[in-house]
Amino acid sequence: MRLSIDFETFSAVNLKTAGLDKYARDYRTGIYCMAWAFDDDAPQIWLPGQPPVPEIVAHIQQGGIIVAHNAAFERKIWEHQMAKHGWPIPRLEQYQCSAVRARAHGLPGGLDEAARCLGLPISKAPEGSRLIKQYSANGTAWQCIDAADQQLWIDYCLQDVVLERAVASCLRELTDFEWAEYHCNERINDRGVPADDEMAE
Fold it and tell me: What string of DSSP letters covers 4-44?
């Protein structure tokens, strides 16, 4: 059994300039919602303030697989934000990334681009770009978003899980060795590489 997830977040921190780790750790960063689904079940939404979902907690504690597109983002947000809401923290080795699988096929890493290359009949919800620019990038809190746009956020998040699974369904599974390489790469990204600043200067 696999758990597919997708987060929508907000922050006053610029993700592109600050980098993922600083973005995820910052006290100004928060979660709008998380879409989730086991295997081919219909996606559901979790909102901050709601209790942890027992089925997801059990899946994590049993070492179950968690799938996301560009999973490093979901992993870091989970590590630094979901803990604040009482969720257990999955191990790195529990994560698999559908963007990595797409790249292994020579496809683009972007979710919408990979879907187009595969000729899929679905795509990301069109309101996503506006919502991100208007709210997420400005650090707008959930309660400051009007109800209609809150629903659009939820629909956008749910659609991403549907699209991620559709893309993944067209791709071969990576081997255990390939996933080990992915996890090794993620560990290196988390830890960084030692550098001799004095020598470099």
Answer: EEEEEEE-SS-HHHH-HHHHHH-TT-EEEEEEEEETTSPPE
